[in-house]
Amino acid sequence: MRHLFKRTVHTAVKIGLVDMAVQAIDGTKIAGNASKHRTYDREGLQRLLERTEKTILELEKENEVGNDPAPSHLPSKLIQAEQLRAEVKAAMEELAEEGRKRVNLTDKDSELMKTRHGIVAGYNAQTVVSPAKVDEKENGLIITAADVTTDASDFRQLVPMLEQAEENTGEQAKVSLADGGYHSGANLASCTQRGQLVIMPESQQHALKTHYHKDRFIYDESTDRYTCPQGQALYLRRTKRTKGTIVREYRASPATCRECSAFGSCTQNGVYGRRIEIRPHDALLRQHRELMATEEAKIVYSRRKELPEPAFGILKEQMGMRRFLLRGLASVKAELLTLVTAFNLRTLWRFWRKKKAKALCEQVVVESGKSGEGTVMFFGYAA
């Protein structure tokens, strides 16, 4: 199915249907074919196993009929309880082997996902969408990359999706748009290394507006210190490693901070004073914030709502992608690829329909010109 999906993208690019000036990436959480109530962690599985074994013992006692011959078939309730016990034991072994925190007994690959309608056991569907020019008056959309992940976070999907879109189209879009869920210093660094311009806001917009955000602290490389908006110095106190990243921590004098007029707004820590943490990608983050503050970036980013959101709307409302029907990550991936392939075929069909109608219209013009007839309307075209 992935090969067929790629064929639709290649065809759209070949006929000049895809506008590679801009593309947008987005994800949506889709419920799987499983109930969230069948998702358990290790402790939950242990409690379920104990209840199930107790139920089995009770059912076995009920079926002890003295000297009467044993029934030829086990009662259905006992069979179901034994099957559940086997499922729970297998799930507990899977948690131990794979190091997972929880597992769903119906669809073992699904994960708990937060959606607008609450928590569901499902998947994170990712797409990259580009505008398509059907004709002079009509536009469309082409999905150039698609995938499904069990990771509820989006930021780890940015680079793989951009790479897939470039592989499928054969070229890199001039500008890529993404929402704040994809924002991270590591992603900006990867995109810079790839030479790919990405326009995306960050989640801490409210913090950036404060007068004492660390971006407002001025760094002096010669003395390796920062100066706060109130003119006080912050010196390097220690270097630490957080989640594999080296972080430099700068601190101001606690006594100076306590006496400062900004105490309570800048910091409320009277023991250590104001502290700022400097990470490897901070300079790149500042540079990107400056880019996002420009009017050009704001105008370009406004196009994001015209690309993935309508595509997901069509997939959900018109093509039934409200819930995945299959179970297992591999099957769900194939299901999404089937849907996005059909989506692209719809756009291609609109293009071919317009092209055919225009060709027939031109034929009518020639024939009517020979016969001396007036203007002819054909499929909405004036001939």
Helix and strand arrangement:
Blueprint: H1 2-14, E1 22-31, E2 39-41, H2 42-62, H3 76-98, E3 102-104, E4 111-115, E5 118-133, E6 139-149, H4 158-169, E7 175-177, H5 185-194, E8 197-199, H6 205-208, E9 218-220, E10 225-227, E11 233-242, E12 245-251, H7 254-259, E13 275-278, H8 282-292, H9 295-301, H10 308-317, H11 329-371, E14 377-378, E15 381-382
Helix pairs in contact: 1-11, 2-3
Could you characterize the architecture of this molecule?
This protein has 383 residues and is α+β, with helices and mostly antiparallel strands. The protein has three domains: 2-33 and 110-184 and 288-320 and 329-349, no CATH class; 36-104, no CATH class; 206-280, no CATH class. The chain is built from eleven helices and 15 strands. The chain has helices at 2-14, 42-62, 76-98, 158-169, 185-194, 205-208, 254-259, 282-292, 295-301, 308-317, 329-371; strands at 22-31, 39-41, 102-104, 111-115, 118-133, 139-149, 175-177, 197-199, 218-220, 225-227, 233-242, 245-251, 275-278, 377-378, 381-382. α1 runs parallel beside α11 and α2 (42-62) runs antiparallel to α3 (76-98). The longest helix has 43 residues, at 329-371. The two termini are 41 Å apart. 28% of the residues are buried.
Distance between the termini: 41 Å
Structural class, please?
alpha+beta
Helix content: 40-55%
As a whole number of angstroms, the C-alpha radius of gyration is: 30 Å
Quaternary structure: single chain
Number of strands: 15
Q: What characteristics describe this protein?
A:
383 residues, alpha+beta, 3 domains, five-stranded antiparallel beta sheet, 11 helices, 15 strands, 42% helix, disordered C terminus
